[in-house]
Amino acid sequence: MAEEPSDTPETAEEEPIKQRKNGLYPGVSDELAENMKSGWADTELRDLRPIPQAAETAARRAALSARFPGERLVIPAGNLKTRSNDTEYAFRASVEYTYLTGNQTEDGVLVLEPKGESHQATIYLLPRSNRENGEFWLDGQGELWVGRRHSLTEAEKLYGIPASDVRELTGALREATGPVRVVRGYDAGIEAALTDKVTAERDEELRVFLSEARLVKDEFEIGELQKAVDSTVRGFEDVVKVLDKAEATSERYIEGTFFLRARVEGNDVGYGTIAAAGPHACTLHWVRNDGPVRSGDLLLLDAGVETHTYYTADVTRTLPVNGRFSEIQRKIYDAVFEAQEAGIAAVQPGAKYRDFHDAAQRVLAEKLVEWGLVEGPVERVLELGLQRRWTLHGTGHMLGMDVHDCAAARTETYVDGVLEPGMCLTVEPGLYFQADDLTVPEEYRGIGVRIEDDILVTEDGNRNLSAALPRRSDEVEAWMASVKG
């Protein structure tokens, strides 16, 4: 990795560009500084078209405007975060900002200024790197170091929003009058500029509204979710093809294999991949992925590709490493499959959100009573939540730009709400018998099974977006044999 630049020419009118300690160059000569200002081609992009979701983002901003008339609304993308010394984590813009603009660049801010009965939207961005003061080649975030940025004119064409220089925004916000709301937690500088103008309660109302706005997906979002799922299906196939290599190494081979698909076809993984083999499958969020992969064990793979527009899949399959379930593995797997079938069937427009969870949990409780692991009747087990020793988690969640989407929504509109066409959620029951659980027979211990699919609520029922991945135990075995060739 190349060292960052060390020096910059200074002028009385400008602050010096941040210098890097221990750089190899002692300074920049006047001749070199002058040379770097000229001889560059015009690279302005003049034939840009709006991003595919421009109409949708405009409609979302209009809905936001209607909800908060007469108020200034400030939605930041966020800033780069330091990973170590002078290197940063990969940037992911805030969901709220990207949902409303389609833009994903650091330091961006969307501002909706009250104008009559509606608002005037402006997207504040960093312009192209300055070539007069040497920023483009001397600053660590200059374009010769991190890549070309869109000009403000280009941004206006892409996003359909007037664009301005974000470096001027904090001063303007300090001088702003009238009611203001900001989405907190992403840009400390923006929040500081508004510190005497906002309240936590009012800002939370803005965050909640933007979370609830994402409960029902538009057609663009549904298409992106299907893209994410389709890539995820291919990622699962990739993993099955290399299980022998994972056996020779570790769970990390599985994680790396899936990540390759995510980076080739999408932006990233939507969350840390869970590649849990053997008893690790009983740890719900096993993301260390450093354990052995052994023939005869199960692999619980919970993974999702995130598209370039930030929509993510969230799919889980529990696979026999050697391609065949043992008798006890099949018994547990088939119970979870039956529970998932009941849960998916309960996903219907007009149904309570909780219905799919209750349906799946009832099946699992019935199995646990049938197997003698907990004393019935089933109603008692469910009332006391006794099945949770082995089921542990809820049966699903909303899905979208966040893997656990819409998390800030009010309880009455989410968990206690009603399903509507366009909602997308996961159905993911599981049974987990910890390796040290002395309340179950030894043959159960260390077996964890989860099956998860991404379900879209439709006008007349539901659609399983991830149906291309087999779920029934015999179909899983046949699919694995086919993929392995």
TrEMBL record:
CDD domains documented for this protein: Prolidase
Compositional bias of kind Acidic residues: 1-14
SMART domains associated with the record: AMP_N (SM01011)
GO cellular component: cytosol
Entry EC no(s): 3.4.11.9
Catalytic activity: Release of any N-terminal amino acid, including proline, that is linked to proline, even from a dipeptide or tripeptide
Required cofactor names: Mn(2+)
Listed GO biological process terms: proteolysis
Ranges annotated as spanning the membrane: none
InterPro entries (alphabetical): Aminopep_P_N, Creatin/AminoP/Spt16_N, Creatinase/aminopeptidase-like, Pept_M24, Peptidase_M24B_aminopep-P_CS, X-Pro_dipept-like
Domain Aminopeptidase P N-terminal, residue spans: 52-191
Keywords, alphabetical: Aminopeptidase, Hydrolase, Manganese, Metal-binding, Protease
Region span, Disordered: 1-30
Domain of life: Bacteria
Pfam annotation, one family: Peptidase_M24
One Gene Ontology term of the molecular function aspect: metalloaminopeptidase activity
Record-stated family: Belongs to the peptidase M24B family.
Protein name: Xaa-Pro aminopeptidase
